[in-house]
Amino acid sequence: MRKASNALLMSILLGTILLVPGKSMRYTAPTPAQRLAAIGPTAGLPEALRRALEPRDDFQPMAEPGPSDWLANHPEAGQTFDRFVRSRPNRPDKHRSKIYLQPLGSFDEGEGASLEQMRRFTAAFFMMEVVVLPPSGQAQHHLTSRRNPYTGQIQLLTSDILKLLVTQVPEDAFALLGITMSDLYPDPSCNFVFGQASPRDRVGVYSFARYDPRFYGEALSARSHKLMLRRSCKVLAHETGHMFGIDHCVWFRCLMNGSNHLAESDARPLHLCPVDLRKLQWSIGFDVVKRYRRLLHFNRQEGFEDEAQWLDKRLRFIAPPERDSHTR
Ligand SMILES: [Zn+2]
Ligand SMILES: [Zn+2]
Fold first, then answer.
1. pLDDT for res 113
2. Alpha carbon of 276 to ligand 2 centroid (Å)
3. What CATH number should be reported for the domain holding residue 182?
């Protein structure tokens, strides 16, 4: 029970910019043996999955954090695969099998990431059906808002959005996720928050506002669209990962690493380390090879060449062509 409530509390605070550095403990990078122990024993797993969980040199160990990085300010102990399973997280089943995305307010389809691109990425990443609901206006729901004193931008209060989403969770939803281009704040004393979730209620809300160069007064450039799509995909997969009960990763450089600032978030890869891949696979039960192939297709289509090359290399190790027919 203690674990469950910790996980909930942590997920709720994820992405909040806390200005008070942690004092109680310091993060120490795990040893290779600790990283392997976090993955757990893989003997007896189907061969393709077992190979997918072998780190080899395709995953970089987590390095010591810089002074402003997440782990220097939020030293987390790390969640092993075993601890994750013991936390009894929500899992999709045949009755609750879909991820719903609820756009709140308008999305600049021509300039930012399109909802269809985000839907395709999320469907490939989680190997689940993803439904984009019709955009819902903010005004009609009487959501509390304010003008942020530092940025001058309108912000929406996350607790209002979560309360609204809880009443709208479709029957077949594993999760209902509000997504918005508006900036968010979790309570009047906080500057802003990237997102807030209540995994046990199966709802969350994430903002893409601070991933848009225009938020910082910068003009859109030729590479803005690709950058914004990549950031949007990353935040969607990271925050949705929390909906599955996956905590921040301290083992490898991984999509589930916490991030304290935009540069740290941009430096995160778009893929999961073996520890977190195992958690997600255990929860959803997908075929790891099919998932990587779908993600490879998406990354190639969108021109994310570095990710595509990484996936291609990984696939050649997990399922070399001559073994293809035996993989599952
Ligand atoms: Zn997070
Ligand atoms: Zn990880």
1. 67
2. 5
3. 3.40.390.10
109 alpha carbon – ligand 1 mean position (Å): 26
Ligand 1 centre from 79 Cα, in Å? 13
Q: Which burial class, exposed, middle or buried, applies to 124 when counting CB atoms under 10 A from its CB (0-12, 13-18, 19+)?
A: buried
Task: Quote the pLDDT of residue 325.
Answer: 52
- Helix, strand, coil percentages (3-state) for the chain, rounded to 5, are 45, 15, 45
- Residue 63 located in a structural domain: no
Whether residue 81 is contained in a domain is answered as: no
CA of 316 to the centre of ligand 1 (A): 30
Which range of residues forms the domain containing residue 224?
90-243
Question: Which residues 6+ apart lie within 8 Å of 207 measured at CB?
Answer: 179, 180, 181, 182, 183, 184, 193, 194, 195
Domain-located, residue 21: no
Task: Report the b/e string of 125-152 with b at 16+ CB within 10 A.
Answer: bbbbebebeeebebeeeebebeeeeebe
Residues with CB under 5 A from ligand 2 (ion): 249, 254, 256, 273, 275-276
Residue 165 falls within a domain, yes or no? yes
Calculate how far, in angstroms, residue 268's C-alpha sits from the geometric centre of ligand 1. 12
Per-residue pLDDT, 4: 36
Q: Considering only CA atoms, which of 34, 41, 24, 126 is closest in space to residue 79?
A: 34
> How does pLDDT run across 131-158, given as a tens digit for each residue?
999 988 765 567 888 999 888 888 999 9
Q: What is the pLDDT of residue 118?
A: 93
Ligand nearest to the CA of 62: 2
Residue numbers annotated as active site = 239
Residue 24 pLDDT:
52
Q: Can you list the residues of the chain whose pLDDT is less than 70?
A: 1-24, 108-113, 138-141, 322-328
Report the predicted TM-score, pTM, of the whole model to 2 decimal places. 0.87
